[in-house]
Amino acid sequence: MNPDKITLRSHRPPMVPSDDRPLATWRDWKRLAAISLGYLSAAIWPRRWDGWLIDRMASLFLLFAVEKVKQLANLMGQVLGPAATGCDLLQAARHHYYMRLEDAWGRIRDLHPQGWEPQVEAEGLEHVRQGLAAGRGVILWGMFFCGSTVTKAALWRAGIRLVHLSRADHGAPSLTRLGLGVAAALYCRAETRYLDRRIVIPLEGSPAYLRELMNLLDSNVCLSIAGEIAGKPSVCARLFGGAARFATGAPVLAWKKQSALLTCYVVREGRRRYRVVIEAPIATDRTLPRDEFVEAAVEQFARRLEDHIARHPADWQGWHMADRISDLTDPFPAGAARRESLSL
C-alpha cells in the first residue's frame, strides 16, 4: 500500500434478482452458528460477569492473533502517517479488537429483552434539540466508531426518537436468502430496539426511499445516516493525504430541506463505558448552490473524520473494511471530476 494515497471504496453489492439468489454460503452458516451460540450463552450467563467474559475472550483472541494485531498496527501507521507520532499502535490495535469483541457481545445481549446496558455519556444533545426546535428536522451524519448501536442507544435513553437509514444488506454475510433474510435481520434487530423507524435502501437501487426521507424531515424527525459509505452519488475529499469518496445523501437532504446537519462519533472510555459526541452543525453557507454546498459539507466531514481517527485510532471500525482502503494511483481529482451526479 502507498501510505500517501488511500481511498474509501464503495462496497455496494451487485444487484441480484431475488429468485436467482442461492440459499446460503458457508459464511452465512458460520454467522448463524455464532449468533445461536452467543444467544444461548447470554441467556444463562450472569450479566454482572460480562466484563470478565469479554476480558477472557479478548485475551484468548490476542494470544492466537499476534500477526493480525501486527498487521492492523502496520495499517494504522501507513494510513495515519505523521499523525501516528507518539501513538503506541500495537496497543491501539489490541484495544481495537477488544472493542469489536465487546460490541459483538453487546449485540448478542440486545437480542434479549433486557438488552445491553453499557455506561454511555452523551455530549452535544443540545445540538439535536436545537435542530428539532427549528422545526426542519435533524440529520445525524455518523462516523463508524465503536459499532452502530451505541449512538442509537444514547439517543433512545435521552428520549429522542430516531429514524435510521440503512442498506438492505446491512449485517448480511452474503447476498443469499439466508444471509439477507435471517442473518441481516438478526443483526439489525439489535439496533431496531433503539429506533423509532428504519428506512431501507433496496438492493435494486430504487429511489423511492428518498421521497420517504424528505417527508420524514418535513415532519421534523431526527434521521441518522452513515457517513463513510462511498455510494453513488459521491464526492471526493482528502483523507490523510489521499482521497476518499463519500456518499452525498446526508448533505443533499440537508440542503433541500434546510435541516440541521450534525456529525457524531463514539469513543470507548473503558470496559463497557462509551462517550457519544454529537458535534456542532456543519457550518456551510446554505445560500450556496447545491453542488457547492455538498462539496463544502463533505470536506468538513472529512476533516472532522480525519481528526477523530488520528486521536482515537483504536475506536474506528473502518480499518477492517479492506475493500475501502487501497492504493489510489490517480491524482486527486479537481473541479467537476471530484463529484458524480448529485441528482435527488
Could you characterize the architecture of this molecule?
This protein is 42% helix and 17% strand. By secondary structure, it is α/β, with parallel strands linked by helices. It has one domain. It has a 7-stranded mixed β-sheet with strand order 1-9-8-2-5-3-4, with helices on both faces. A two-stranded antiparallel sheet has the order 6-7.
Number of domains: 1
Query: Poorly predicted ranges (pLDDT <50, ≥5 residues)?
Result: 1-17, 326-332, 340-344
Our estimate of the beta-strand percent is 15-25%
Structural class determined from secondary elements: alpha/beta
| Widest beta sheet: strand line-up | 1-9-8-2-5-3-4
The string of secondary-structure elements, in order, is: HHHHEHEHEHEHEEEHEEH
* Main sheet record: 7 strands, mixed
The overall pLDDT, averaged over residues, is: 86
What is the CA-based Rg, rounded?
20 Å
Helix content: 40-55%
Task: List the total number of helices.
Answer: 10
The coarse overall form would be globular
Total strand segments:
9
| N/C terminus separation | 35 Å
